[in-house]
Amino acid sequence: MTIGRSKIDHAQWATYLVAAADDRHEVRAITKLLPLLSNDDAYAIQAAALEIMLGRGDTIAGAKLGLTSAEKQEQMGVDEPVYGWVLASGVVAAGDDGVAEVVVGDLIHPRIEPELVFVLAEDLVGPGVTGDDVLDATASVVGGIEVIDSRYEAFTFTLPDVIADNTSAARLVVGADGVAPRSGDLREISCTFAIDGAETGVATGAALLGDPAGCVAMLANHLGRHGQKLEAGWVIPAGAPCAAQPLAVGTIGVASYSNLESVSVKGI
Ligand code: OOG
Ligand code: MG
Prior knowledge:
Shape: globular
Structural class: alpha+beta
Bound molecules: 2-oxoadipic acid, magnesium ion
Radius of gyration: 17 Å
Distance between the termini: 45 Å
Number of strands: 13
Largest sheet: 6 strands, mixed
């Protein structure tokens, strides 16, 4: 618990991270400079960075979870889930050939990862939201690919660092057609991720803390603690079930799902 007012200048650290993204250069992890950064202060930096982006005319397209699978937690060395924002400026549409092109030069050191994305039909207001409530409020579940791009040196961070950095969010590709949330068991949807035709990971929805809908409930409850909610129409990536892979110019990443349309990204 934070007692009294934090001495950390959240707006200053938000500017530090937004400038890193704008200039496409990596910066030192904040905890290298502020070793005692708390998660509360980190979420306050994240909120200040969101304000900067909204002040530029960007809008919120959704909210996201990260580090909800054992594979991702091991890959990044962080053992707790994190919550962030999906900005409308980061949502990339697929082209006529079904492949979404991502401009690698706009980013620092991007990686791509598969996602199960919830598209909400109704608001979800925490606390007390359950996985069942999430299924009731969801219009459809679609496949996706998230492009993550940590603003930190060597894509390395601690839990508060990645929280402050909006959970490395950069771009999101959302598949065209999804399934109704109760049309099957979301824990059994299987996902295969391949880079340039070579399989890099296979997992099921259950890899997401046992239940993807439960992850979205955690996010709604997290926002509820801050007086915020998930809103109808938002897209909610529930976290990658398997490890992220580097995206270079020419790389083609394909996320295939047992009963969702596959999603493809090409680095250009
Ligand atoms: C943090 C973001 C994690 C996910 O799906 O696990 C994330 C990172 O790995 O840089 O979006
Ligand atoms: Mg992700």
